[in-house]
Amino acid sequence: MQIEVLYPEQCNLFGDSGNIRYLKKCLPDAEFINTSLNDTPFFVTGDPDMIYMGACTESNQEKIISRLMPYKEKLKEAIDNGKVMLFTGNAPEIFYKYIEKDDKSKVECLGIFDLYAKQRIFERFNTLVLGSFDGKEVVGFKTQFTQIYGDNSGNYFVKVERGAGINRESKLEGVHVNNFFATSMVGPLLVMNPYFTEYLMGKLGVSDPKCAFREQSVKAYKDRITDFRTCRCVTE
Questions:
Q1: All residues at 6 or more sequence positions from 222 whose CB lies less than 8 Å from its CB, including other chains
Q2: How far is residue 20 from each of residues 16, 143, 197, measured CA to CA in Å?
């Protein structure tokens, strides 16, 4: 099994790299391929079982968009063909139509999904997220300069119970198409959500998947659900 990690030296904010560190524990026999900013992505000539990318700075985000633009059709084909893909933090914005900056200028993105981001660099939005996907509760955190707009009602990832979806008014978070998962949630999402991690492992062909440190992870997950459901402060 091969898992490609796009631009790990840039896309490692908020503890997102914890997702790959955890997958290495869950899938000890898998090969992890790191693609650097000036490399040709492995998925262009190879056929990884999974592609992952985490959060990065806004300046690096623009560099990455330019690096991936030549491979837009290849990425669209991978999504259509059901390749397992997970993009967290601001990484999903690369797949949207554009990012509108503070000065109203627009950064053209890959345009694979009919969504767009409004970036307001002095208005960081923080919220916890408690929601559900595929009958399983999902917990996470968001901290972002952007709000996402457009209609994701037909392909959202998480239906939100507490917190916000793609923007402050939305209760539908992220994008889920085939085995492509995109979310603005940051940090070690897979560590925090053992059942979703096992769901992904199943999509990768693991029979009877069991995540690493399962007992501890499930206990922390259940404790966090209780905290998120009862806490007073959800967003700031």
A1: none
A2: 8, 20, 11
Tokens coding 18: 């914890």
pLDDT, tens digit (0-9, with 9 covering 90-100), for 146-179 = 999 999 999 999 999 999 999 999 999 999 999 9
Which pLDDT belongs to residue 183? 97
> In which residue are the tokens 């998962």 written?
181
**CA distances, 118 to each of 88, 95, 112, 166, 174 (Å):** 17, 14, 17, 11, 15
Of 70, 25, 32, nearest to 49 (Cα)?
32
User: Is the separation of the CB atoms in 25 and 213 below 8 Å?
Assistant: yes
Q: How far apart are CA 178 and CA 199, in angstroms?
A: 13
Amino acid at 65: I
Distance of CA 13 to the CA centre of its chain: 12
24-40 core/surface letters (b: 16 or more CB in 10 A; e: else): eebbeebebbebeeeee
C-alpha angle 200-49-71 in degrees, rounded to nearest 5? 115
- Is this model's pTM higher than 0.90 or not? yes
**What is the residue type of 104?**
K
Q: Are 120 and 138 in contact (CB under 8 A)?
A: no
Instruction: Locate 203 and state its tokens.
Output: 């999509």
Could you give the 3-state DSSP secondary structure of residue 32?
Answer: strand
* Cα→Cα distances 189→16, 19, 44, 86, 113, Å: 8, 6, 27, 10, 22
